[in-house]
User: What shape does this take?
Amino acid sequence: MTEFAAALALLFMCFFVPLMDLGILPIRWLLAQELIQSYARQLSLCETYSQALAKLQADPSLETKLIRIGGVKPLNMKCRLIASTVRAIPKMEFIAEKPGELTNDWLPNGRNAPISYVMQVSVDCEIQPMFLVRLPGIDDPDHPNKGKVPGLNGPVPLTVAASASWENLGRNPVSKNFYVNE
Assistant: This one.
């Protein structure tokens, strides 16, 4: 009976705890992915690209929602507009990090038309395991990141990205510029 209790405790600590850690990581990743996807969709519905970037900078709701999942720590958020050709072979892409970066060739009536515009939101984050397991010989208090096993005794660093098609391909009636480049 004594050996059975020790074997059961060893089985629980060496098998079930790491298994639960590895089971919770995909769930947290899926929840983060869904939140970022819905936020990318909201940004793609903005009138101009500069409004989408301003909304990302001013509105902390995405970061707050990711933190409320529990175990997800957002580090860096980026928003990019990706313009890609539809019919050209090979496919060409232009990535705009700021408003006004699209050249005349990459506008809806440009030389590369027809063009597909996609709003991409990417978040660098750390996903914590459910239980942190102290491993003998690996945990060093002098060097906190040395010897960390992601998902077992440390967070898993990853980038979660989502994209949505840009909706507004019209022109501003006042400035005559395309909304996608403002």
